């Protein structure tokens, strides 16, 4: 799998993650959110891999992909509970641009703020 393909798949996964979290304003346990994410979008051969330590590659990929969303304020990870924190502007713009670009743009000041302290719902 090429680097660009991995980015596209992870972008699709992050959109799905926010859809999965939307009905749960108090959040979902991390493992449950990842389980639902994997069920919603089957794993590629690359994503099914494991590390020598026994860790699943998909869990590491998702953890890495969500880092910018936490930094941008779109996602909180408190005590292994994941909670979406998007405002109306974010919900309108998410389908229009790659999710990773929006999160990176917000963290480096090139995108308008899309997070609030309310729920994603």
Brief sketch in words of this structure:
The protein has a single domain (3-108), classed as Orthogonal Bundle (Arc Repressor Mutant, subunit A), CATH 1.10.10.
User: Stretches where pLDDT falls below 50 for ≥5 residues?
Assistant: 117-121
Distance between the termini: 34 Å
Strand content: 5-15%
Supply the number of structural domains: 1
Name of the level-1 CATH class: Mainly Alpha
Question: What's the alpha carbon Rg, rounded to whole Å?
Answer: 14 Å
Strand order of the largest sheet: 1-3-2
Quick one: overall form? globular
Structural write-up:
51% of the residues lie in helices and 8% in strands. It is mainly α. It has one domain (3-108): Arc Repressor Mutant, subunit A (Orthogonal Bundle). A three-stranded antiparallel sheet has the order 1-3-2. A hairpin with a 2-residue loop joins strand 2 and strand 3. Helix 1 packs across helix 2 (30-40), helix 1 crosses helix 3 and helix 3 (57-72) crosses helix 5.
Describe the SSE topology.
Blueprint: H1 3-21, E1 28-29, H2 30-40, H3 57-72, E2 75-78, E3 81-84, H4 88-93, H5 99-108
Antiparallel strand pairs: 1-3, 2-3
Helix pairs in contact: 1-2, 1-3, 3-5
Tags for this model:
mainly alpha, globular, 121 residues, 5 helices
